[in-house]
Design a protein that fits this description.
Blueprint (H helix, E strand, L loop, with lengths): L11 H4 L10 H10 L1 E4 L5 H13 L13 E2 L7 H5 L7 H8 L4 E10 L21 E4 L2 E4 L2 E6 L9 E4 L20 E2 L7 E5 L4 E4 L7 E9 L12 H6 L6 H5 L16
Antiparallel strand pairs: 1-9, 2-3, 3-11, 4-5, 6-9, 6-11, 7-8, 7-10
The chain binds 2-oxoglutaric acid.
Amino acid sequence: MTKHWHEAGSSWRTYAPDMDVMPFTDVERYHFDLYGYVVRRGVLDDPELDALVDSIDAMQLPSPGASIQSQRFTGFLEGAQVFRDLLDHEAILAPVLELCGPKARLDHAYGIVMGPGTSGLGLHGGGTPHDPAQFYEFRGGRMYNGLVGVQWALVDHPPGEGGFCCIPGSHRANFALPAGADPGLVVTVPLNARDVLFFTEGLTHGTSTWRASHDRLALFYKYAPGHASWGVQYQTTLQALAGSGLLTERQRRLMQIPAVHPHDAVEPA
Ligand SMILES: O=C(O)CCC(=O)C(=O)O
């Protein structure tokens, strides 16, 4: 018999015992709650990584420059199958449902490509001021998030060479980030190709200058609770994708328009 997932003490195995998934371990859950992010190492296998990189190469993206706009790309979910496989990949689905609820939806997705020496988006987010679209809260034994980022690293992001940065724990901040705060509070998170990073958009985070000699390449899939939307892609590209016949039933459920009801759970209970 399945339990409602929000019941104190329920686990992902009891909520959806047949799911082929990798729920957060106690260690990962502790890290995410405390720091606002957590990394899972080496979750993509070589064929997946190669197919993702080759499929991005095949898109023949323009060379990225200094502007954020030139460093971002979309339009890949409609392309190679391997991009759609990430939507509900076994390495991320259970954590996404835990963080966003059983009706979680994909809000938007994009890629980042950055050339050596370029900088990206500055620090944004944080527990204060409260942002009803991008928040972190712990209540009744579970974590609630307005928006969760899932970053797939497709190249190495070596220590000190840039990429995702954040002020760990700032999703719980009760004061706005003051001008003049110690820059040492900001941590850049090293990643290896094949890793996946989960972060709450309630965290103060951004992109630190890319200092590696190779281009940065990463994919971002952003998930929201079933009733919420941050962007408008559900009206445009994601609805078209949902009707395209390219998705599995579970992936289609991740594309539902934001609503409490009607709204199917991603995994039937
Ligand atoms: O470059 C990064 O990893 C951070 C991107 C970012 O700030 C975001 O997706 O909200």
